[in-house]
Amino acid sequence: MTARPTTLFNIVPARDLTGDRFAYVVAGPPGTGKSTLLGSMAEVGKTLVLATLAREAASWKYKEHNVDVIPLWESGWYSEDNKEGRLAPGVKTEGFINFMRAVNMLYEDEVYDCVVLDSGTELAELGWHHALMPHGVIAPAYMDGKSRWLPYETLATNLDQAIKNLVNLTNAAAAKRPKYVGVSWHVQPPKDDQVETVGEGQNRTTQRKESADNKGEGVEYEGKVLPMIRGGFRRKLTAQLDTVVFTDILYTTRPEGAKLVTVPRFVIQVQPDPERHAKLPGPLAPMKYIDNNFKALHALVMGGKSEAAQTAAPAAAGKTRLR
User: Fold this and answer.
1) Where are the alpha helices (H) located in 176-311, listed in sequence order?
2) Where does residue 319 rank: exposed (0-12), middle (13-18), buried (19+ CB within 10 A)?
3) Distant-in-sequence, close-in-space partners of 136: CB < 8 Å, separation ≥ 6
4) Model pLDDT for residues 187-208, shown as the tens digit of each residue
5) Which contacts of 128-131 are long-range, i.e. CB under 8 A and separated by 24 or more positions?
6) 176 burial class (0-12, 13-18, 19+ CB within 10 angstroms)?
7) Are 181 and 175 in contact (CB under 8 A)?
8) How many CA atoms lie within 13 A of 120 on its CB side?
9) How does pLDDT run across 46-63, given as a tens digit for each residue?
10) 74-105, pLDDT tens digit by residue?
11) Which of the 8 DSSP states describes residue 279?
12) Is 305 in contact with 236 (CB distance < 8 Å)?
């Protein structure tokens, strides 16, 4: 039997290809510590933040480490000059394009070890503006003579490429200086089914129309918590990354004088449960929660379970969860 030729392909061991850089999404409600986790990446290397909102750039962790920031937020989209759903002349949507340019620049960068996108939620909004711009409207409802699904399809396509480009900065074969990549995202529940009334008079009845989110559960995604994105890309985002964690707050009580006080502890969930599908690029984490800092997450992802276990935050008796 003749051996298959291999000279046309670059065959490398899997360990050499992946290296020790990884990308992750940290998802959760506002005020639960997403930017804190991302800011702690500065403790392992020089960090650059791609900030889509001014308030995200003002996170205390970013200030503590005095990280470099590229502002990507837009002004003028919501203008009083917009009339009847039409964009005012001269309105520009450059935030999303500038993000793509910044990521492309970082492939040649030899300074930064970590890149942060804070937040992905607002990047999706910048992408939404970019998708609506060619139609000259502020919402699909004002589109005349065209499919109102076009902006959603454009958004999904653009976000797919944007996230892939960002994640690929971890790849030693693509970037001159491979980087850790962290992305924050707000969350939302799956869209509910819709109840529609059809027919008239005695023939009038109601029909339940199953939402695309409910159809996709168990097929496109697991759990009950999705990234906050317009359209169907919210069901597909986490497929782009090997690591997905969720911020949470555990509460415990401790004596203080003659009374017990409730004390919050900010943690990240690294084990999946029926509501949140956390995932790591390896075996199941030996604990459900770890401290909210990147060193603990890095140790867990790279196999340093003993170090990660020292910072574990188990849901012991007497602790409750914030929902």
Assistant:
1) 212-216, 294-301, 305-310
2) middle
3) 86, 87
4) 866 655 555 555 566 666 666 6
5) 128/155, 128/230, 129/74, 129/77, 129/93, 129/95, 129/96, 130/93, 130/95, 130/96, 130/97, 130/154, 130/158, 131/155, 131/158
6) exposed
7) no
8) 32
9) 999 999 988 888 888 899
10) 876 766 655 667 777 777 788 899 999 999 99
11) B
12) no
Residue given tokens 């290809």 in the structure block? 17
pTM value is: 0.80
The CA distance from 222 to 180, in Å, is 25
The domains located in the chain, with CATH, are 19-188+234-241 (3.40.50), 190-223 (no CATH), 248-323 (no CATH)
Going by pLDDT thresholds of 50, 70 and 90, the confidence category of residue 106 is very high
Per-residue DSSP letters for 47-59?
EEEEESSHHHHT-
Q: Report the length, in residues, of the chain.
A: 323
